[in-house]
Amino acid sequence: MNIIDLVINVAILFIMMVPGVIMKKCRFCTDEFGKGISNLVLYIAQPCLIVYAYLSCDASFSDIWLGCLMTFALSFLAHLIFTAVAVPVFKKAPDGACRMLRFATIFSNAAFMGIPLIQAIIPDPTAAIYASIYNITFNLFLWTLGVKLCTDGLEHMHNDEDCDCHEQLSAASAVSIKKVVLHPVTLASVIGLILLILGVNNATLESWHMAIISDSLLMLKNLVAPLSMVVIGLRLADIDFHGFFKDVYMYIFLVLRHLALPIVVITVMKVLGLFLPISDTVSLVIAIMASAPAATSATMFAEKYDCDAPYVSRLVTVSTILCIATMPLIVMLVQLK
What we know:
Low-confidence stretches: 154-166
Structural class: mainly alpha
Order of helices and strands: HHHHHHHHHHHHHHH
Distance between the termini: 13 Å
Number of strands: 0
CATH topology: Na+/H+ antiporter like fold
Helix content: over 70%
Shape: globular
Radius of gyration: 20 Å
């Protein structure tokens, strides 16, 4: 992959944020507008992108099952590595900040930033398939570990007469499993795998005179990149950075999220690659997803579980800005032989 192309595409994604910033600063939209766009991307555009990726794949299931398995295993391992480091490092941070520093370090913006970037710079259609597998692992950790991080110690923070914390924790545990199974990315990946196993692809649809289906999916999946960036732009417009850059934990977070931990993941992949058949596409997908900025879902989780939402919003903003410099560097490292 040409690094210049990567830098250009990352810059293009950033330019796509500008309309969101303008709309929010000029009060052309409300907070509900951003939530509506997020839902459109999450429940419609991203599933269409994933299903279309499977339809665009000329290879059979027997050709890519090993790559899918490697992607799942490596993405699982990457999240374990991030967790093993993030949990003890921020142990002494203030409670609300501690929980969200851990959350933002572990979870990358794999869906809103990683998938559009992979779609733009990797021509291999299997890359989007592997990205969908990574997101299954991401959601598995998000709705289990992520909920645990945000609610850890919650039962000790309030008395029963003040709030229904125990009920909230029980509901979170029940909902988390449902979210993993019924998440749009998971469902779209299952549908895509079924189509791949059955041998249904774009060529098949054309032969059945049903190309209108693939064309519709193509148009909808093209919404992912611009709308995802608009949503991020809407959130960037609300951030107040007063006194933020005096926070030492923020610098530790940025080093871990953007450099140290992605480099550890790449090193582990290279070592495992000496013994396992890890393809270049799989390695590239894992590297891009692991080096993406902090997940925008961190803000939503912080608001839901009262974990200092303004603070984590600033973390996500700085992380998103910084990735334009660090992601090309990480991709260069993963391509070194």
